[in-house]
Amino acid sequence: MTKLVMKIRNKIFTLKGRTNYFFLRHTAPRSDNLSASEKQFFEVGDWVEVRQMREIAGTLDEHGKCNGLYFMPEMEEYCGKRFQIIKIAKKIRLESTGELRKLRVPSYFLDKVYCNGNFQGGCDRLCFHYWRAVWLKPIE
Question: Can you give the pTM of this predicted structure?
Answer without folding.
Answer: 0.76
